[in-house]
Write a structure and sequence with these properties.
Layout (H helix, E strand, L loop, with lengths): L1 H4 L4 H10 L10 E4 L1 H8 L4 H14 L2 E4 L8 E5 L2 H8 L5 E5 L5 E5 L13 H29 L1 H15 L8 H20 L7 H13 L28 H13 L4 H8 L8 H24 L6
Antiparallel strand pairs: 1-3, 2-3, 4-5
Helix pairs in contact: 2-3, 2-4, 3-4, 4-6, 8-9, 10-12
Length: about 300
C-alpha cells in the first residue's frame, strides 16, 4: 500500500512532516511549517519539488493542509499513515485516540479541517478560485518534478547502455548498491574538485574536466612494436619498467622545471604501484631539497680573488 501511495520525492516530505508531528518526542496530530523549512528538513533541492510532493500527498490523503494566509509561519499540516489512508479507501473510519475529561480513551473520527484564508472573501468565490488554481498548480508541479528527473536522464541512459555493452546483458536490480557506490565516488571526486575551484558555475563540466585529468596517465615506457619491418632485425625484448632510482631522478627534474608536489601526486601517483609510491615520493622530495640547498650554497660562495 505504501509503495503505491508515494511518488517522486513525496516520501521524503512525508517522513519529515511525520518526524516533527506524530513521530516527535511530544506527538501532535498537526504541525505548522513553512515551505523553506520543509525543503531543508526533507533535503530537497528545489521549491518546485516541495510543492509537487505536498500536492501529491494531499491527493492520496496522506496529509491534510490548512492554509494560513498572511503569516510567515507557513501552513498547518495534519499527517496520516498509509494504514489510515487504506482504511478510508475501504470505507472504514480513520480514527485517532483522544482523551476525554474522565481520562478514558475514546476513538473519534478525524475531522476534515476546511481550508479557509484569513480574509473576508466569500466561500463561493474561494471555491471557484481554488478549483482553477489547483489544476494549474498540479500541472506545473508535475512538470517541475519531471524536469528534475530529465536532468539526469542522459547520465542514467549512458550508464545503462555501457553496462549492456561490457556485460552483454541487461543491468540487474541486484547491482543497485554497487551503482550507488559508483555515484558516491563521483560525488567525492566532484567535491574534491570544487574544493580547489573558487567559483563553480557548472557541476558536470567541472567533474568531466577533473576526471579527464585524473584518468590521463602518462606512459613511462614505449610499447614494443608488434610487427617488424621486412628489412629490420628482430625486435628487442620489451623495455623493462623504470627502476625506483630512475623514477626519482625523473621526478626531481620535473620539480626543478617548475612542477609542484600536488601536480606530481595527481599526474604520477596512479602510474606507480601503490606500495612503491610513498617511498619514491619521499626520496624525490629529499633529493630535491638537497640539490636546491646545494645550488643556493654555490650561489652564495664568493669567487676567488673577489
Amino acid at each position: 500500500m505504501a509503495a503505491r501511495l508515494f511518488r517522486g520525492k513525496s516520501k521524503q516530505v512525508w517522513d519529515y512532516l511525520w518526524s516533527v508531528s506524530r513521530g516527535a518526542v511530544v506527538p501532535s496530530r498537526t504541525v505548522r511549517r513553512s515551505r523553506p523549512q520543509i525543503k531543508a528538513g526533507a533535503g530537497l533541492g528545489s521549491m518546485g519539488t516541495v510543492d509537487a510532493a505536498i500536492s501529491h500527498l494531499q491527493e492520496v490523503g496522506l496529509i491534510l493542509v490548512k492554509t494560513i494566509v498572511g503569516e510567515n509561519g507557513g501552513n498547518e499540516y495534519e499527517v496520516f499513515t498509509p494504514e489510515e489512508v487504506a482504511a478510508g479507501a475501504f470505507g472504514l473510519p480513520i480514527s485517532a485516540g483522544t482523551t476525554n475529561e474522565t481520562g478514558s480513551t475514546e476513538t473519534t473520527q478525524n475531522p476534515v479541517v476546511p481550508v479557509l484564508p484569513e480574509s473576508g472573501t466569500t466561500s463561493s468565490t474561494l471555491s471557484a478560485i481554488g478549483a482553477n488554481t489547483s489544476d494549474q498548480s498540479k500541472t506545473s508541479f508535475k512538470t517541475l518534478e519531471k524536469d528534475d528527473d530529465e536532468t539526469f536522464a542522459g547520465l542514467v541512459e549512458q550508464l545503462k547502455q555501457t553496462a549492456r555493452e561490457v556485460t552483454g546483458r541487461e543491468p540487474s536490480a541486484a547491482e543497485g548498491e554497487r551503482w550507488r557506490e559508483v555515484a558516491q565516488l563521483l560525488a567525492d571526486e566532484l567535491k574534491a574538485a570544487a574544493g580547489r575551484t573558487p567559483v563553480v558555475s557548472s557541476a558536470p563540466a567541472l567533474l568531466a574536466e577533473h576526471l579527464r585529468r585524473r584518468l590521463a596517465r602518462p606512459q613511462l615506457t614505449q610499447p614494443a612494436r608488434q610487427t617488424p619491418l621486412p628489412d629490420e632485425p628482430p625486435p628487442l625484448p620489451p623495455a623493462q619498467p623504470p627502476t625506483d632510482d630512475e623514477l626519482v631522478s625523473m621526478f626531481v627534474t620535473f620539480l626543478h622545471d617548475g612542477m609542484t608536489t600536488q601536480d606530481l601526486d595527481e599526474r604520477f601517483s596512479y602510474s606507480v604501484e601503490p606500495q612503491r609510491w610513498p617511498a619514491i615520493r619521499e626520496a624525490v622530495l629529499a633529493r630535491y631539497e638537497r640539490e636546491r640547498e646545494q645550488v643556493e650554497r654555490t650561489a652564495d660562495t664568493p669567487l676567488d680573488g673577489v
